[in-house]
Amino acid sequence: MNRDILLVEEKNQAAVLTLNRPEVMNALNFDLLYALRRAVEELRTRTEIRVLIITGAGDKAFCSGADLKERATLSPEKVREYIYTIRNLFTGIEFLNKPVIAAINGLALGGGTELALASDIRIASENATLGLTETRLAIIPGAGGTQRLPRLVGRGKAKELIFTGRRVGAQEALDIHLVNQVCKAEALMEECMKMAAMICETGPIAIEQAKYAINYGLESDIHTGLAIESNAYWVTIPTEDRTEALAAFKEKRKPDFKGK
């Protein structure tokens, strides 16, 4: 396997994971999925890393989805294995104990859009194009797209986009709340790092519990969701970080959070 198929750079408490197959629009083959899975799992317990940013190499594509050349060589059994692998990986990203920002720097189709959907925050460059185009290949989204897209943009809009396989530009993606922010291509990583820096100013345990409450609460009724929120809040009460925040407020200084 090419060791450089996924680039990992760490700076300012953020880890930038770059899909590094620009010659095929950063398409996801088995090797890249395995490399991404390994990196995410290694970063899960790294307390000094507060935020993950996922992007694609080059200036044309974030991720064009499955590697169709590889797919054409796979047996039906291996295709099923691929789908299980990518689906479980993206679910792991969605429920990771750290915020994940998708820096969408160009084309994001099929699995590329599904990777963005599994991220917590999506920031797109002006030249970005997104779409769940699988039905045009006589298949359906298999890495969570049929579930995450309607939860984000609504059932009707999700059905329109999936049924037609239509691509949307960055501005339309922003208008339908598919992405959080659009910026100039040259400013994309700067904007993502700004977002990461703002997150890093907050309490690590609070962020972990807030993400937990949002993710699990949205899958339940309001009463269960409120109970999940309360239980997540209780986790923050005995922490050193909460005491530090109160002391810092009183002393009119920035808190020094330790994640404890």
Characterise this structure.
- The protein has helices at residues 30-44, 68-71, 76-94, 111-118, 145-153, 155-164, 170-175, 188-200, 204-217, 222-236, 240-251; strands at 6-11, 14-19, 51-56, 61-63, 100-104, 107-109, 121-125, 129-131, 168-169, 181-183.
- By secondary structure, the chain is of the alpha/beta class.
- The chain has two domains: 3-200, 2-enoyl-CoA Hydratase, Chain A, domain 1 (Alpha-Beta Complex), CATH 3.90.226; 204-251, Lyase 2-enoyl-coa Hydratase, Chain  A, domain 2 (Orthogonal Bundle), CATH 1.10.12.10.
- A six-stranded mixed sheet has the order 1-2-3-5-7-10, sandwiched between helices. A four-stranded mixed sheet has the order 4-6-8-9.
- The model has no long low-confidence stretch (mean pLDDT 95).
